[in-house]
Amino acid sequence: MQHAQKGTEMERKQRNAAARGFTLVEMLVVVAIIAILAAILVPTVGGARKTALKRKAELECNAIKTAIESFFSDFKYMPWEEGSGRGQFVGDDKWAEDAESQKDIMAFLRGENKLGKAYLEVSSRDSKSEASAEDDEGVFYDPWKHPYRIGIDRNLDQQIEYKGKKYKARVLVFSLGPDGEESDGSSGKDDDIRTFDLEK
Ligand SMILES: [Ca+2]
Ligand SMILES: [Ca+2]
C-alpha cells in the first residue's frame, strides 16, 4: 500500500516537472556535469584496468616460469622435444615465439609427460585468442591476446641469451605488453613484461 502511495507521489512530481519544463540552461548544466564526470572517471577506470591486466600478465609469466622449473626438477631436461634418439631433450637453447612452438612446451606442462603430471593449467579463457580457433587449444595467451614468449635453457648451462645479452636463468618468459609489439630496447616505449625484470 505504502509502495503504491510512493509511486503516486513520484508520478505527481514527474507531472509537475514535466509541466514546468526544463529550461535550456538547466539542460546544458546537466550535460556539462555529465561530461565533467565522464572526463574524470573514464581515464581512472581505464588506468585501473590497464594496471590489473599488467599484474595478471606478471603473475602468468611467473606461473609459466615456475611450471617449467618444476618440470625440470622432475625430469632433468627442459620441456622441448626435437630430433630423435638419445639426448633429444638437450640441445641449443630455444625460444617459443609463436603459438605453434609454445604449444609443444605447453603439452609437456599440461600433463603429456612420462609422469602424467600437470604443471600448469591453461584455462580455456586464456587459451583462446580473439580469432578463436581449435588450433589455439592449450596455447597460453597474455591479456592482450598474444602468446607468451618463452626462452628455455635447453643446453643446461643456466644461461639464456636474449637480445645479445646473457641472463642467468633456466627460463625466461615475457609478454609483448599492451602494444602487442616486442620492445626494441629504446626506453620510454618499453611496455614488455619479462620475468627477469620482475626479479630485479
Ligand atoms: Ca643456455
Ligand atoms: Ca611491447
Explain what the structure shows:
By secondary structure, the protein is α+β, with helices and mostly antiparallel strands. It has a domain of 139 residues: Glycoprotein, Type 4 Pilin (2-Layer Sandwich), CATH 3.30.700. The chain is 45% helix and 10% strand. The strands form 2 sheets. It has a 4-stranded antiparallel sheet. A two-stranded antiparallel sheet has the order 3-4. Strand 3 and strand 4 form a beta hairpin. It is elongated and about 85 Å long. The protein starts with a helix and ends with a helix. The model has no long low-confidence stretch (mean pLDDT 84). The protein binds calcium ion (2 copies). The site of one calcium ion has 6 residues, from loops.
Summarize it.
This protein has about 200 residues and is of the alpha+beta class.
Annotated CATH topology of the domain at 60-198: Glycoprotein, Type 4 Pilin
Mean residue pLDDT? 84
Order of helical and strand elements: HHEHHEEEEEH
CATH architecture of the domain at 60-198: 2-Layer Sandwich
Give the C-level CATH assignment of the domain at 60-198. Alpha Beta
Please give the largest β-sheet: 4 strands, antiparallel
Largest sheet: spatial strand order: 1-2-5-6
Gyration radius over CA: 27 Å
- Measured as a percent range, the helix fraction is 40-55%
Treating each run of at least 4 consecutive H or I residues as one helix, how many helices? Answer: 5
Q: Any low-confidence stretches, pLDDT <50, length ≥5?
A: none
Hetero groups: calcium ion
Distance between the termini: 66 Å
Gross morphology is elongated
Number of strands: 6
Structural class: alpha+beta
The amount of beta strand, in percent, is 5-15%
